[in-house]
Specification:
By secondary structure, the protein is of the alpha+beta class. Helices cover 34% and strands 42% of the residues. Strands 1-2-3-4-5 form a five-stranded mixed β-sheet, with helices on both faces.
């Protein structure tokens, strides 16, 4: 995955969150030596959002969120006072974008 594709996927996730009533508090938020892709506020809950992107399929994007990454994101989220961790799996190909939002994965 190219850095440009990752940035587009993160932007798409942020726009999707906003369309569903969330406020994007930050993008690429540094927490110590780590980084959270998005931090949003939705329905009075502060949420850390990890965005994974693939040009193969949604399941492939989700597969990149392994146990080690889940633990890392959960730790960073707790350091920021987030109450939940969501995963957004984005797939892109010549036909367009597909997005799957998985709540409370951490």
């Amino acid at each position: 995955m190219t850095p440009g594709l990752a940035a587009l996927a993160e932007r798409l996730a942020g726009e999707t969150a906003a369309r569903h009533g969330a406020t994007v508090l930050g993008r690429n938020v540094r927490v110590g030596r780590g980084e959270l892709d998005l931090v949003i506020h939705h329905r009075s809950v502060k949420v850390a959002v990890e965005v994974k992107c693939s040009s193969i399929g949604l399941d492939d994007a989700e597969a990149h969120f392994d146990d080690a990454k889940r633990d890392q994101v959960a730790f960073l989220a707790s350091e920021l006072g987030c109450h939940r961790v969501d995963l957004v799996a984005v797939t892109a190909d010549q036909r367009g974008w597909w997005l799957r939002w998985l709540p409370d994965v951490g």
